[in-house]
From TrEMBL:
Keywords: Ligase. InterPro entries: AMP-bd_C (IPR025110), AMP-bd_C_sf (IPR045851), AMP-binding_CS (IPR020845), AMP-dep_synth/lig_dom (IPR000873), ANL_N_sf (IPR042099). It comes from the Bacteria. Pfam families: AMP-binding, AMP-binding_C. PANTHER family: ACYL-COA SYNTHETASE (PTHR43201), MEDIUM-CHAIN ACYL-COA LIGASE ACSF2, MITOCHONDRIAL (PTHR43201:SF5). Residues 9-344 form the AMP-dependent synthetase/ligase domain. The keyword Ligase applies. The keyword Ligase applies. This is Acyl-CoA synthetase. Belongs to the ATP-dependent AMP-binding enzyme family. Residues 403-478 form the AMP-binding enzyme C-terminal domain. PROSITE patterns: AMP_BINDING.
Length: 499
């Protein structure tokens, strides 16, 4: 299918921008950027919540061949300042209340409300950027620079290198499959656009010329209302969003007609099998899943039928994607499974890390790129065991947290959990667990202990179990295990001192 060059209609805060109106905003914003001296190869930071201006800016920056840098505005000010410096940003577009003090980058403020004035130090206002003539120069092809979530240290900026025409065509075909977007689709995006999956779904909708409905943030009841109001056919969610929708009272859920939904996609974080079964029961066989990374792009894809027949799979490798498993001794393909997964893909161009080419080189494993994920293939379907960095080694035994998490989640009184290793003088590490109980009928701690004793060997059973109202997560749904591990170890150290 040929990809439309016209722009989508974009619905934002009750206003629907026609394809021509949205395209004109992009051309005028691109013209404004060019007048400010921006050109191909420059970096422009977007420190903005989900909004139509952010979508326009992303398109306009890429139109002139510059790189948009999507900034996680949920981060602390020093984290935002780090990204601005690391990416060598020449200009930023920002919501004024998100702009960090002490930043020395010139910026354009995007007002939160109409008529609002920007802070001191701004280079121009959003209205001034749009005030001049349209950009009529050559169309650029740069992709947005996405910063990883930084779960093992400072985030790394992932920049895609130039793709060939063939790679761009294969990437478009792959995105057609992943997002399922067809002619006449009506797409709702509620996840933050500084993450790769929701951003690319929005970009793909725009490139295809379909309707894109954008929300500033996710709200479960508002999500259901929007599906009904706009007859939404396609959307992207993360597992925590599934849980929040299903956590609404049945009367609230049933008050909204969501029968228009035909394709729901999730990615970014593992979905507990019990939760996914409930979503499929609620909405039908429309829940699709893909596995991939910011660096490599999509790797595998699972239809509802795939997952129902092979529970727990993340699908089959996509066309043009080859997977291998690394030998722990040589670091090259050929290891016994499960082992660290490595990927080779022809659908996307190569990538690098901003300012860290040596970190990119470390990932090369022959013709493959290591992912840091542990997995295995069974009957052609890919399964993930865990992350290499999350592996717990207790008394010389390898323990995969995902295995322990799956056992804990078997109990109906468990809403979610996180398992990780904490330092132990005797065994090196021991297993710890943080459990989020179901609010209505929480799991009984004694029942949980009995269940774990019956299902897991001694070393795999959590030495420490704590309960919480909700797990700390990144906006993409990933649990912040590094934070949990540090907090647990600090509390355990304090207990020893108190004793």
């Amino acid at each position: 299918m040929a990809v439309s060059s016209r722009f989508a209609a974009v619905a934002w805060r009750g206003v629907e921008y026609s394809p021509d109106a949205f395209g004109d905003l992009v051309a005028r914003a691109a013209g404004g950027l060019a007048r400010l001296g921006l050109s191909a190869g420059d970096r422009v930071a977007l420190v903005v919540r989900n909004c139509v201006e952010g979508l326009v800016a992303d398109q306009a920056v890429r139109r002139i061949g510059a790189y948009p840098v999507a900034v996680n505005w949920h981060g602390a000010q020093d984290e935002i300042l780090f990204v601005l410096g690391d990416a060598k940003v020449r200009l930023a577009l920002a919501h004024q209340d998100l702009w960090p003090s002490g930043a020395d980058v010139p910026f354009i403020s995007i007002p939160l409300t109409e008529g609002e004035t920007g802070p001191d130090g701004q280079l121009a206002s959003w209205a001034e950027l749009l005030a001049g003539p349209r950009y009529e120069g050559p169309r650029g092809s740069a992709e947005t620079i996405i910063y990883t979530s930084g779960t093992t240290g400072r985030p790394k900026g992932v920049r895609k290198l130039s793709a060939t025409a063939g790679q761009r065509a294969r990437a478009r075909a792959m995105r057609d499959l992943l997002y399922g977007i067809r002619d006449g689709a009506r797409v709702l995006v509620v996840a933050p656009l500084y993450h790769a999956a929701p951003l690319q779904m929005a970009q793909h909708t725009i490139e295809r010329g379909e309707l894109l409905v954008l929300h500033e943030r996710f709200d479960a009841q508002r999500f259901l209302a929007a599906v009904e109001e706009h007859s939404i056919t396609h959307t992207f969610l993360v597992p925590t969003m599934f849980a929040r929708v299903l956590g609404l009272p049945a009367a609230v859920r049933n008050a909204h007609d969501v029968s228009s939904l035909e394709f729901v996609l999730h990615a970014g974080a593992p979905c507990p099998p019990a939760l996914k079964h409930r979503v499929i029961e609620e909405w039908g066989a429309i829940v699709h899943e893909y596995y991939g990374s910011t660096e490599l792009g999509p790797v595998s894809f699972a239809t509802p039928e795939d997952w129902t027949a092979h529970p727990g799979t993340v699908g089959r490798p996509l066309p043009g994607v080859e997977v291998a498993f690394l030998d722990p001794e040589s670091g090259l393909p050929g290891g016994a499974q499960p082992a660290e997964l490595a990927v080779s893909t022809t659908a996307f161009g190569d990538f690098t890390y901003e300012g860290l080419p040596e970190r990119r080189a470390e990932l090369q494993a022959g013709d493959f790129v290591s992912t840091g994920d542990v997995g295995y293939l069974e009957d052609g379907y890919l399964y993930l065991s865990d992350r290499i960095r999350d592996l717990i080694i207790s008394g010389g035994v390898n323990i995969y947290p995902a295995e322990v998490e799956a056992v804990i989640q078997e109990l109906p009184g468990v809403a979610d959990c996180a398992v990780f290793g904490v330092t132990d003088d005797d065994l090196g590490e021991v297993v710890a667990a943080l459990v989020e109980p179901v609010a209505v009928a929480p799991v009984d701690p004694a029942e949980l202990e009995r269940h774990l004793s019956a299902r897991l060997g001694r070393l795999k059973r959590p030495r420490v179990i704590e309960f919480c109202d909700s797990l700390p997560r990144e906006p993409n749904g990933k649990v912040r295990k590094r934070l949990l591990r540090a907090e647990f170890e600090e509390r355990m150290k304090q207990q020893v001192q108190d004793d």
